[in-house]
Structure to design on (544 residues):
């Protein structure tokens, strides 16, 4: 599988060329990230340390997982200072969950969608509907058994900051996605999806374009940012220290999109 | 981004090595597919025609989109012979949809999960919960404006047949995923997911394994087959004639899995 021949830069418009070959490379050399660290500088350095990525292409997409963004931004909570409400204590005791963590999940929610059988599905202030408000205890860092990460406060802004740092370091304006692992109704398991974007339109609206037979496609909106996040996860895995990957060749629709473009408003929600 | 150095074959067991570099290549030279065609032979030939794919590796995953599988298997319906029930006529008139297609959607369902605001979400006999029972009118073929595709009757068997054909043609037993595009609650747009598998365990259960800090991961089940299907879609696009892709380097959990492994039983369904 030879590397693709060099392509001209993407036009930067709304109609991407079709690709045909996509490469996903985990960035090398990212160690432990702590509060106050500059994630943009860290991943920009990691891009330079990973063989074969420079020069960057304008259709590259950098995917950075939520965990290091949250840790760098200090979006963490030490459970030792959390006093769970009675509802959190009862739910934790019934379902063998840490009541302090249940408390944080409820604090991070603007709406509880489901809270049963040990599962809490909430809506966050960002508008995400997901398990546990995105509160996560895994891979937080050594010796931090009582610390959980929260979602970044403004993941689009997190992505924009990383994008700026990469552009300043390497001279190319690439798209950035902050990703996290979400469950789904009706299917087991988690998949990585986008929770923040910069420099990419996260949904590519093909409605009105002809399909391969010249028939108008009626309802094809590709959630391309989610697919790119999932592709990145394949190179990252869950237990290794690989928190970021570069996706090359996906021909993303460039533009100043927001993660809000990917979120269904309540008025269209058939599963409230 | 040079091609990865040759790796030894995957061990074929349940504990995949971590990757770090994933490549997705759309297969070249697949033309129009018609009822009775041998999809396995077609994609095996396309693998040989696509530069750089041979020799195959035992950790390769071939992703074949539902459309050509359904067409080859004759899982299509000519709407000109469909007499819609009154409910389908009423829904079609209210929401500007072809009542004959609504009728086929209802026939393909074992359960209607939601039927409102122009959207029909059903459960199929396979156990999939998705829009329109997977009935699709786009990219069916030239001059077939009244023909829709249905889901393959047994997508695992479809995948197994393709796997056998590839093994016989190229001597390597690779995993095969049949994919289709699904919408999701709460998020706009469709992503490709697995609807049939052969030679891969579609969910990789990491529960009980240590995370990077040695902490036991509590609830991490990766829907790796869905992520591979989404990665493949990035190389395929929606309007081009690229119905299959090879995914190399994802270190899939090999084994004799079934798509049923990926489907949540009704007893766990919080969104019936």
């Amino acid at each position: 599988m030879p590397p693709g021949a060099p392509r001209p830069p993407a036009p930067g418009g709304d109609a991407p060329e079709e690709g045909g070959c996509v490469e996903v490379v985990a960035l090398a050399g990212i160690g432990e990230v702590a509060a106050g660290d500059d994630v943009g500088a860290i991943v920009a350095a990691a891009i330079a340390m990973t063989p074969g990525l420079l020069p960057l292409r304008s259709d590259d997409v950098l995917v950075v997982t939520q965990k290091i963004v949250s840790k760098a931004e200090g979006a963490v909570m030490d459970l030792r200072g959390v006093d769970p409400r009675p509802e959190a204590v009862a739910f934790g005791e019934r379902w063998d969950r840490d009541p302090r963590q249940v408390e944080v999940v409820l604090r991070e929610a603007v709406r509880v969608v489901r809270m049963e059988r040990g599962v809490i599905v909430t809506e966050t202030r960002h508008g995400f509907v997901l398990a546990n408000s995105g509160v996560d205890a895994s891979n937080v860092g050594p010796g931090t058994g009582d610390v959980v990460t929260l979602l970044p406060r403004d993941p689009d802004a997190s992505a924009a900051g990383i994008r700026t740092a990469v552009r300043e370091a390497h001279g190319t304006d690439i798209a950035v996605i902050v990703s996290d692992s979400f469950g789904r109704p009706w299917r087991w398991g988690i998949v990585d999806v986008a929770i923040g974007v910069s420099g990419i339109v996260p949904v590519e609206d093909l409605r009105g374009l002809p399909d391969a037979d010249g028939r108008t496609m009626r309802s094809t909106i590709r959630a391309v940012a989610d697919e790119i996040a999932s592709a990145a996860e394949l190179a990252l895995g869950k237990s290794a220290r690989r928190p970021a990957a570069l996706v090359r060749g996906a021909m993303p629709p460039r533009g100043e999109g927001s993660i809000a473009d990917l979120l269904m408003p309540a008025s269209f929600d058939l599963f409230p």
Notes: Chain B touches chain A through 86 residues (CB under 8 Å). Residues 82 and 254 of chain B are 42 Å apart (CA to CA). Helices of chain B lie at 39-49, 66-73, 86-95, 99-107, 155-170, 224-236.
